[in-house]
Amino acid sequence: xxxxxxFRIPLLHPLLKSMKYLYLLLTTVLFSSAALAxxxxxxxxxxxxxxxxxxxxxxxxxxxxxxxxxxGSFRDAVSQPNRTVVFDVSxxxxxxxxxxxxxxxxxxxxxxxxxxxxxxxxxxxxxxxxIVRYMRFRGSINMPRGGCTVVADSLNNLILDHVSIEWGRxxxxxxxxxxxxxxxxxxxxxxxxxxxxxxLIERPEFxxxxxxxxxxxxxxxPKAKAKIEYINNVIYNWGNSGFVGGHSAEDxxxxxxxxxxxxxxxxxxxxxxxxxxxxxxxxxxxxxxxNKDGKLNGRPVTAEDFIIQKATMLNQPxxxxxxxxxxxxxxxxxxxxxxQAGSSLKRDAIDSxxxxxxxxxxxxxxxxKSEAEAGGQPEVAEKHSTVxxxxxxxxxxxxxxxxxxxxxxxxxxxxxxxSGYTNLEEYLNSLVKK
Length: 434
Description:
With 434 residues, the chain is of the alpha/beta class. The chain has helices at 9-37, 74-77, 303-307, 320-323, 330-340, 349-359, 397-402, 423-430, and strands at 59-63, 83-87, 89-94, 99-100, 105-108, 117-120, 124-125, 130-133, 136-138, 150-153, 156-161, 164-166, 171-176, 179-184, 187-189, 197-202, 205-210, 213-215, 223-225, 227-231, 234-236, 243-244, 252-257, 260-262, 272-273, 279-284, 287-289, 299-300, 312-313, 383-384.
């Protein structure tokens, strides 16, 4: 019996057994947390903000009118965090003052009936962990001189999917000191006076822009003072310059892959501009079409095109291995962007006009000084949803019945199913499945 302690075994055995169960429990919890952290914002979300959770599991807010403020307005809807915002109305929301969106928000523009939702007249700024889909944001010559239509500063995790951004006075879009931002299938166009610029991307990290349309901006499509991947975009009718480097003493990293630069009536030869040695560029598969002949028949972009601009060229991408965006060839990207960019479930007259310019492949397009010169924001009839939702959970009765939910029990809307999405999210995602 030397070296053995049989009298301790009965005491240790329950403890060891308990520790085993505790280990299994902790492992399960950690695994579940890791799985939850990897849940896509929605099927098809890509880029660095693809895991944003928005308002998942939070309260539902229904936008019921087109008022500037007050109960049922868009401003009120986004004023509090942890919400999913749906629309029972379509039309144009004319805002007088800036709107600040609270964190942990999902804005489901795809729920608006008929022609969708346009927010017009001033800036909208976002906070961390937001999912924004199928919305139109338009500024105005009446907002402050330095106003940008959409602002995404000092935040983490923002994904804009099928969003139209137009008529910013300084830039259409401003992103500064943020991390993990995705723009996919967006339309960034028609910046107006005094600058008429597309976007200033100022010292953020991990920005993805893919399959977006940049049209009729004087410059900054975008200005990329950033760690950014720029994939499968179409850049049309730039004025002074197209894609602009960081052009500063700080180091910037730009992966520029399989984009199509297409000159329009206002375009100079500067489809690339303002790079310095601190811009570390990986470029692959890009095309440029400068002849304005109505045909898509460009030439490959070369490293020399960037070197002339004084960029430092890299042999390997800096950003792309971390986000794994699916890459199309530039010709296919052009087709996808023309079909889908912006709030494209049903394009309104303005977005349709802009895309129409692009499809002339050099023959049409214009850089405007104001929205009035561009034709202005049309009056759009206000329309309300007639879909029945008995329990008010954001999911129509018919969809709940078809999917084995209960149209009279609101709680099932926020229940998470095997896909990792709530039932409400499943419904929202079903509205825009390709």
